[in-house]
Amino acid sequence: MDLELQNGAALEVAVNDRHNGFSHGEESDKRSTWRDIVLAYKTLGVVFGGLVTSPLYVYPSMNLNSPTEEDYLGIYSIIFWTLTLIGVVKYVCIALNADDQGEGGTFALYSLLCRHTNIGILPSKRANSMAGPLHPNQSMSDEKQSRLGKFLEQSITARRIVLFIAMLGMCMLIGDGILTPAISVLSAMDGLRGPFPSVHKSAVEAMSAVVLIVLFLLQRFGTSRVSFLFSPIMGAWTFTTPIIGIYSFLRYYPGIFKTLSPHYIVSFFLRKGKAGWQLLGGTVLCITGAEAMFADLGHFNKRSIQITFLFSIYPSLVLTYAGQTAYLIKHLDDHSDGFYKFVPGRVYWPMFIIATLAAIVASQSLISATFSVIKQSVVLDYFPRVKVVHTSQHKEGEVYSPETNYVLMVLCVAVILGFGDGNNIGNAFGVVVILVMLITTILLTLVMIIIWRTPLILAGLYFVPFSILEGAYVSAVFTKLVEGGWFPFAVSIILASIMFGWYYGRQRKLEYEMTNKITLECLGELLERSDIQRVPGLCFFYSNIQDGLTPILGHYMQNMRSLHKVTIFTTLRYLLVAKVPPQERIIIRRFGLDGIYGCMVQYGYADSLSPEEDDFVSQVTNSLRAHIEISSDGLSPVSIEEEISQLEEAKSVGVVHVRGKTRFYIGNETSRFDRILLGFYEFLHSNCRSALPTLAIPLQQRMEIGMLYKA
């Protein structure tokens, strides 16, 4: 009896535990689902601003001459299948799985390739070589390298091409930051001309330029105070436009969805021929902003982006374009104002207000994304140093770059006033949109083959259809180069050249420093020489390399014949976290030589290093004093006291910060490639910001040591 009771009690406990386990699991799943839904709502105002406002300018950007009902049916079929294949299949189902530790975008794909093959090393990724597999079929322990991976590792030309392609994709995103504000705001403001035909187009352009100038001037205050309005505004837009679309196609053309059959696309091209192919330059704009789904992956998560696109953005766009097309079928010549004409008169002004606000939010999203791209490029040492200010202590992505901001403002206003016509801006926009997508297709295919080890047949089933589809779009938009497409292409090529030249120069300098680094043994031999004096004072000697000492040290000692009694070799290390804990901010090493120490300063994006709030020298010396006291096992208290006294005395005498200002010596034996690239790098380096002002070091304490590196 007792045994039965015990067994019954045990069974009851087991059942209860199992039930509680299921309950906890269900609660955890519910919390996770709710978190994803909240994030999905937030993505409306950040990720999809450019994509969901595309109905404002798709039809007005097309060069339609005497269009017919069959033409519009074919165009809508193209739009539907473009949204489905590129938006749903490519990005939602495939590309979002190719993240690099949660980060997305073309440069994340390149970073992923760099961490798994020897085609280049990203500075921010070196320390994280223990990352787990990013795909279920991927194994970090795989020893067998793919043939394509071996080819890329062995061919320096192929590696440079892949790097340049990745940089070009990032620069195209910056070009998107120029054109999205211009075309979105101009298209929204153009709604004034419907009720007021007397308003001249130049007046709309001037008002759009004023709106953008005000928007750019407000960037320095950050977006935290108004960002809570972004998602409601985009939510109102996403909800109202498909309702109008449903009303429109039910009223004008209820059978619009028969165009989901691809044969309407075939008949469209057979009938229109070359003219139909050229119209692809306008239809491609329906997918503008799709790349943001992938690029902004690090700010949200895959599931939230998928939820928003599949259940909100995609059906909203399909219904909105269906309503626009249905209206245009009954009003064949209204395509130049294809959005506002199909809006019913009773809701015209509310929709004008929502459209204008949505265009501003879309512009803000791309401007903020551009700041983030520039900031990450500077941090990774792929772009010349520019000033980056964090306008929020809690959000890494909320940054502001004064130089970038004003360059963007000038270019945006120049686009509006220079091109004027939304048609020409659309031509320029199409180049940016489709080239970024084609670059993503190329890099994602490399990831599939090299990292995921996807069978070539399956990789081909991805690459061939999408390269054909996007290649057709590329060929069409390239015919628009003369009509405005040259502008973003030229901007992107210039930016990519700057990034490639800067990266190449920095890598060559790092290679030289690693090859000619000063070892501790060599430093000890130099200090033992009778002609080398130890002068009073405290010296911070900055170095970019952690394993060894910069060759500038040897150059300095041989020419100055001296070294300060206390010298701290300092390396600055940026971490992609908000704040580094105080106990991890400064890492001290003892080199075993009298008065010689190593120091690594780690800081995050929200840390302040200005002396008004955070005395850099005092922090380092206090950390060094604590390190001496803790790590001096076996030494007598007198020796410890003498070492601390030496440090305090050196600090009281004076502090100097020594930084190498190195240049390449380009001789006759230097290759032509190096002459061009390194000469360009020297031009950039001489015109960018210094690294030391980020620490706000007083000018009188700085010393720059010049040295020539042989190219």
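Second entry:
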Amino acid sequence: MASIVKSFRASPYFDLNLNKKRHSRSRIQCLTSGDSAAALSFESVKVNGIVNGVSSSVVKEKEEADRLSIEVGHGHRGSNVEEKKREKVSEEEKLEPLWDDGYGTQSVKDYLDLAKEIIKPDGGPPRWFTPISCGPPLKDSPILLFLPGMDGLGLGLVLHHKSLGKVFQVRCMHIPVQDRTPFEALVEWVEETLRFEHSSAPNRPIYLVGDSLGGCLALAVAARNPNIDLVVILANPATAFGRSQLQPLLPLLEALPDELHNTVPYLLSCVMGDPVKMATANIDSMLPPTGYFEQLSGNLTGLLPRLSVLSDVIPKETLLWKLKLLKSAAAYANSRLHAIKAEVLVLASGKDNMLPSKDEAWRLLRSLRNCKIRYFKDNGHTILLEDGVNLLTIIKATCTYRRKRNHDFVADFLPPSKSEFKQAQLGNGWLRNYAGPVMWSTREDGKIVRGLSGVPNEGPVLLVGYHMLMGLELVPLVEQFLQEKKILVRGIAHPTLFSQLVESENKEFSFFDTVRLYGALPVSPSNLFKLFTTKSHVLLYPGGAREALHRKGEKYKLFWPDQPEFVRMAARFGATIVPFGVVGEDDVAELVLDYDDLLRIPILGDNIRRDNERYKDLNVRAGMSGEVANQALYLPGLLPKIPGRIYYLFGKPIQTNGRREMLKDRSNAKELYLHIKSEVENSMAYLMKKRKEDPYRSIVDRTIYRVLHAPMDQVPSFDHE
């Protein structure tokens, strides 16, 4: 079969120290999964750092490097043409919704195949390399420095190269197997690179991704550089090495005869990661069960013969050295936690058999000034090589991605990718099957059609509608726009969703993370202004939390404020306003305990009052009067029903283009505002009447039709004529 050559090359940002002796250049090529080949090419030389722990001048290296091109590829001496070409592509590129992030195209087999070649000795010290599979990043993308774990290879992000490479300038640290650079010297080496990058782009953050041992290195560097804008991401950091479950076994490893050492990597592979999680990383989760398990079996079988390379990655002398390095690294980092000012995100595994990572994440949360946790209960120590953990997805969902010092919800937003959309569909499939959502829209001529063809494709577009109980309508709405029109609807949401107040006790990836991942942003005039400027499709609920958390007997009642401000803002940008109604909450669930009921329950009522006192500073309706200002946040008591169906109707688009001057007048703006509100109410009245004519309103009838005729999204509904 034909093989595809992928390659990695040395980054021009970390050029050679020309005063030092040039070491041999190594080119590595090896077979990877899928009958493809992978090649790794980098300069086996001193790169922007330390030889045997001796620091050199970055400034002098940079000046000299400017006079020399780097050898890449097949031995040709390159020029700046390739870099200019990459920069041009970066400037022209823009991520569209459902872009291909490449997640799932590589697996731990690729890691092992590349490891087999990269460990070949070349006499070189630690160095940086940039995987070519990362591709050219978007313009103004921040630097990401990956600091590896105990293996030192720098291949720990192999599952994430393509996705991270789109939005970061990725540099991976490689520590040769025979290298014995002490921890403090490694800290200085990384620090020198960090300061060089900061001097090149002082207004741009620098990301440090530390895996296990690399986590100690990242924290140490952050502690020594509190004035540099850093984002530190830790994957099961080895700061907990002193409490490792393996501590009693360490003396045995030292005494183990050399001839038995080949068995150690096999034992460590079981301790450090979940083999099944690793084997499923490149399997399509939407495959039928037989196909899924057949591919899983093949992956597991393919992994076994490759594990032998681990004994070469960590030979006995290197293993003993790395264990000493871990001990000194943990002590160094832990003694300096108080000095860290960087933004920190900790990824902790629940099945880490090497370190107490869950407890360590909580300790770091208490010890660091600006720290967040995401806990993955089913993953092992090598979390970045396992299925179910897309690093870029986590960075995006926690609002950790930014290009400047402060996060911008519009400028820094990255749309969901194909793999993220597929994962969301799997997670939300129950809602589609349970509620069978069906959508209608109104064309310019007033004709109602099934689907979203009546909603304009070109923005700015403002969708204004009714907020159903608990926001049940949100997920199907966003999914349908993505699936049918490849348009991401940006929802304007309550600021509480973006605060530490909604961080769950267990710190797992939550619904709130998914909401942020799909473009929700805090309600504010400035954010609405930015969205209109970028010609976005915006989702606005004037009734807000009061509408979504309504009381008994208030279903399908609008709680809109008196101010028509969004009308005037829309007119300023010539946005098209599309009013819409949605019904079906009474067919899906019954509200049995509302806010008033819950307040009367001892202890629970006190907790709700206390929580809402904490939310008070985030109340977007502060200063208003009436029910619209009563935006208490709570979880109502719902009783699921044998479900009917959720129906949407998007009304006739209302043009504001050319009406800016007219709508500056408050009375005219108020008139249009009331017309929009009336259209929303009329849409709901229409749907409540027509749903009685739907022969497939019941889940029973929809399920039978689906089995016999068509997928769920093609199940017929009422006659709209």
